[in-house]
Every structure is written in C-alpha cells, then in structure tokens.
C-alpha cells in the first residue's frame, strides 16, 4: 500500500516526496481534494498526508468526504498545515478523524518516523487480514470435511443396517430350508422303503428298481440341501483367528473315515505330517480337511491299496499345505472347473457327490486370505494345495 | 411284570408320524407310543388336562420324542414348559428334528434337553436311529424315579 500526498502547491508535494523517498514506499501525489478522492476510489493507502489550506475544498472537507467512503474510512490521515495559519482548528481536525497534525516547515525525521509507523501498521493489518482469511477458509474446509464425514457415516450406517437385514433374512431362509425342505424328502424315502417292504411280492423287478431310484433321488437331494446349507453357513460365519492344530484334525478325520468305510476291504496308507499348525478358524478349517480328505478317500475307493497324505510343502521359499492321493485323479484340462459349485469332473455313477464340497473349501480358503489349487492326472491321483494367507510367511 | 413304558411322540406331520411309528415297530421294550399333534396337546397330556384329563399326572411318560417345528407352540417352548414344572422336570426328552442349525442345538441344550437327534432322510438310517434311541432310553438308561401311588 502506498502513501497519498495531498497538497495544492507543487513545491509542497515535492518537499514531501523528498522527505519520504527514503522509506521506499509508493508515493502518490494529488493536487486537490477531488484528485485525492479519485485516487482513493481505486487504491488503498497506508496513510494520507493532507494539506489543510487548499482552494475549492480544504483539508477538513476532504477529510470529511474521505471518512464517508467505506473503502478508506479507516485510513489514517495526517493533517499538514502552516503553523501560522489563522484557521487551524485542531479540535475540528480530530473530530473529523485525523490521527495527527504536523506543522510546516516539516521536520523530516519526525515526519518519516510518524509515517513509517502507519506504514508498518498498514502492513501488519494487511497481514492479519490475510491470515484471518486463510483461517476462515480452513474453517470452511474443515466444516465441509465434517459434513462429508457425517454423510459417509450415515451412508455406512444405512448400509450396515441393510446388510444386517439381509443376513437375518438369509438366516431365516437357511433355517426354513433346514426344516422344511427335508421333511417331504423323508416322506418320499420312507414310504418308498415301506412300499418296497410291504409290496415286495406284488412288484416286479422294474417296480422295485424304480422305487430304489426314488429313494436314491430323495437321499441325493438331502445331501445337496445339507451341502448348500453348509456353503451358506460358511459364507455367513464370522471368521475367528486362532492357532489351529491341523495334524490333530486330520488324524481325527482319518480315523473316522477308516472306521466308517469298512477298512477291511482295502488297504489305506494314511500319512499325516506332524506339528502342522495354522492360524485360522478351527471349525471352518475342520470343514476344509473333512472335504479334502473325504474326497481323497472317495476317489481312492476303487483301489485295493492306496496312499493318502496330508502335509506341508515348501518350494521356492513358499509353503502350502497339501492333500495328496493316488486314486482316480482328474483331467488337468478341466482343472478350472474343480472349484465351481455344482461342477463335477466325474459322473455320479462312478463317484457319488454333490459337487459343492470343493466350492465350500474354496470359499473358506479365500475367506482366510489364501489360495487353493490342484494338480492331477487321470488314474494317477490328485494333489490339492492350499495356503491360508497370501503373504509369504513361514507358516502359510 | 413291569408296566409297559410310554413313549410320547410329539409330531405334527402325518407322514413323519407314520414313518416314526414304522421305525419304532421293531422296538425291544414293551412300550406304547402315544402321538400328539402339537405342543399344546403335548402339554395337555403331560399335565393331564383337556382331552387327557383322565390321565394320572403323577406318572409321566418314560420318553418324550419332540419335534422342533410344531404349530402353536414350538418344540423349544414345549421343552421349557416341561422343565419348568416339578412334575415333569425330570422326564427324558429327546429332540427329533430335521435341523442341525447351531442355534437350534444351543437353545435345545440350554433349555435342558437330554439328547438331540437329527432325522435322516434315508429311512433305513432313521429306523436304525429309532431302534437305538428306544434301546438306549427305555432299556439301557435308568429313568428318573416316579412317585409311587399311595
């Protein structure tokens, strides 16, 4: 901001200029009150040096007009006057809003000193104004952020509410399926059985066979319902993370398989590596092992002798658990279909199954942040690998 | 000669009822199966009211086979009422149901059920389960003492 010098006499202006040049500020000269007002329309000044004795409009009138204008209402005015002038009305000057009087001839040091005070004041005021504006803007921004945050939170809450509602619906859906779909199946199977017994003699071979098909179909459907329920359950369940002893689980599953399956008919070498531990949900991991080991058991069932192994494989610094069998295997060409729900690579005639087990396993492994993949070849067995987290840790 | 044992079968589905009776046909113990169609009837029987007012309430059945999904009162509510009354508090109750949902298992055991059996679809398996149930609860198991008649 500059300094406005107002004096009708050019010598006066030159004198002021000479004194104030040292300050290095922008000096604007006006030869009359009117000219001064024109400058004040377009520019802001740190201080106005105003001569009182001017023709047409004197210093007081000029000052009064300056004070009327919004833009320069608070600009400091220093009156300059000859000390011997008859109509110096000091009080009037202060009333109009001057901050100081200086008498001519002016003392340069004094004038410079006073003017620089106002220049400094103006500078500081400007600085404060800028800072205030910045603060205001920042406040606006924070307010906007807070609003956005509030909106997001609201949206999140709504979403949560929706999800909770969907979950509840799914639960009651599952519950219904659990109860209601199985009851008719029981009737179908049960009364077919009853019919087979009571009317055995009255039925011919075809009749009996048809009834057996009815029973098989009902039982297959029941298995399907159970597997689907399991799949839904796995998706919904909360994932716990704790230390899980996979060796123990595998051994339990193995014992059950060997007990159930009438092991006398075939020789199964069941190998479980020791101290296999993982960090995950114990129930869900049990489901994984039951499915993978159960599959291995099923697909080796046509061999008199076979080997099933569960262990930890380390290759190239990466570890993965594996379940390996030397049974029927599968064609690698169809490997991508292995984990799809309802996808099977063998016919039901060869091996019973709903085609959901691996989809369930896949989902569980994915929920743990891991990967699952398989290698196999027809009649030469299969190996299923899985990790339980995608980072390269010592324990997958 | 010991008195015939009584099995109270609480089952609303007529198909399931007939299958249960078929399955229990080859039972070992001398026992009579009483069938009621819903929870309210079951409680009427147990507390000798309504259509069972003639019954002696001091002699509870030896075994209650309870389905969960019943009209009016569901199985868990019936179980709670059974466990709430001193006269019936000790009666062996086995839940026989389609569901293996965890929430059902939890509420059943929480309400004090003695055993929880999931009805298999395969009839042969169901018959085997019924046989085992009956053998266990009526032959092997010692039930709670019954108040002697004065």
Give a brief description:
The complex is a heterodimer of chains A (396) and B (150). Chain A is α/β, with parallel strands linked by helices and 396 residues long.
SSE layout and pairings?
The complex is a heterodimer of chains A (396) and B (150).
Chain A: E1 2-6, H1 10-20, E2 27-30, H2 33-42, E3 45-51, H3 59-68, E4 77-82, H4 90-96, E5 100-104, H5 108-198, H6 205-236, E6 242-245, H7 246-260, E7 267-272, E8 277-280, H8 282-299, E9 305-315, E10 318-325, H9 357-367, E11 372-376, E12 382-386
Parallel strand pairs in A: 1-2, 1-3, 3-4, 4-5, 7-9
Antiparallel strand pairs in A: 6-8, 9-10, 10-12, 11-12
Chain B: E1 5-10, H1 14-23, E2 31-36, H2 39-46, E3 63-66, H3 75-84, E4 93-97, H4 102-111, E5 115-118, H5 123-140
Parallel strand pairs in B: 1-2, 1-3, 3-4, 4-5
Helix pairs in contact in B: 1-5, 2-3, 3-4
Overview of the molecule:
- The complex is a heterodimer of chains A (396) and B (150).
- Chain A has 396 residues and is of the alpha/beta class.
- Chain A has nine helices and twelve strands.
- In chain A, the strands form three sheets. Chain A has a five-stranded parallel sheet, with helices on both faces.
- In chain A, helix 8 runs antiparallel to helix 9.
- The longest helix of chain A is centred in the middle third of the chain and has 91 residues, at 108-198.
- Chain B is an alpha/beta fold and 150 residues long.
- Helices cover 37% and strands 17% of the residues of chain B.
- Chain B has helices at 14-23, 39-46, 75-84, 102-111, 123-140; strands at residues 5-10, 31-36, 63-66, 93-97, 115-118.
- Chain B has a five-stranded parallel sheet, sandwiched between helices.
- In chain B, helix 1 (14-23) packs across helix 5, helix 2 packs parallel to helix 3 (75-84) and helix 3 (75-84) runs parallel beside helix 4 (102-111).
- The mean pLDDT of chain B is 87.
- Chain A binds chain B through residues 174-175, 178-180, 182-187, 189-194, 215, 218-219, 221-222, and chain B through 13, 15-16, 18-19, 22, 68-69, 97-101, 103, 119-124, 126.
